[in-house]
Write a structure and sequence with these properties.
globular; 51% strand; single chain; 0% helix; 230 residues; four-stranded antiparallel beta sheet
């Protein structure tokens, strides 16, 4: 796999860089997902084999300088396990990275899913938080989609069962206080139905969340007032 950076000059877009992993291997699927800020790019490789752990997955941070783009860090899960596909989804700010691993089984709950927050200090990235749903159950796929600001994280779990609807889906908001991330809200559709898969895609600012689903041609916008999302 590979990822391509394009830069805009007026109305023209030109290819600036081709990004590949320093430790590339067959079937890594580097480029399965990606996110960019002005100076940083984060690329997911969901089938990478870090430390020879089959399909544990990885994500790669690249930084832009006057001479081009260079790999700055390889992010992997602290609790990496086979076939968890860390790097299935990614989101990025200049100082924080959020990486989804929807096949992770936290607390031995099969495929409940997880997401990982990394923080940058200088040129070093370190894991700051391990996010899971407070009400996790089997086959939630928490981490299918992720979105991040400096203070908030939004994680989709399209397989979540929202009573009484199987696979109706949900999305979870986490908020940062210092170095601690805590769950602030569980978002669900007002007209939830079975197999909606609400949370298959997500996007976030500090005040708004956008949630997509697969079963109908609509999306949902939530707004924040203090700690409440509606």
């Amino acid at each position: 796999g590979a990822a391509y950076v394009f830069v805009r000059s007026g109305t023209e877009w030109d290819e600036q860089a081709i990004l590949t992993a320093s430790n590339k291997a067959a079937d890594d699927q580097f480029g399965f997902c990606g996110c960019v800020t002005n100076n940083y790019a984060l690329i997911g490789a969901r089938l990478a084999d870090p430390s020879s752990v089959n399909n544990a997955g990885a994500a790669y941070v690249f930084v832009r300088s006057e001479t081009g783009w260079s790999e700055q860090a390889i992010l992997t899960a602290s609790n990496k396990a086979p076939n968890t596909e860390f790097g299935y989804s990614v989101s990025l700010t200049d100082n924080y990275a959020l990486v989804g691993a929807r096949y992770t089984s936290p607390d031995s709950i099969s495929v409940a899913g997880a997401a990982y927050v990394f923080v940058r200090s200088g040129t070093t990235w370190s894991q700051q938080a391990y996010l899971t749903a407070s009400n996790k159950v089997n086959d939630d796929y928490f981490g299918e989609s992720v979105s991040l600001t400096n203070n908030y994280a939004l994680v989709g779990a399209h397989g979540a069962d929202v009573s009484p609807s199987r696979d109706a889906g949900a999305a979870y908001v986490f908020v940062r206080s210092g170095t601690t991330w805590s769950q602030q809200a569980i978002l669900t559709a007002s007209n939830k139905a079975q197999d909606d898969q609400f949370g298959i895609s997500v996007a976030l600012t500090d005040n708004y969340a956008l949630i997509g689903l697969v079963s109908a041609s609509r999306s949902y916008i939530f707004t924040r007032s203090g700690s409440m999302w509606t």
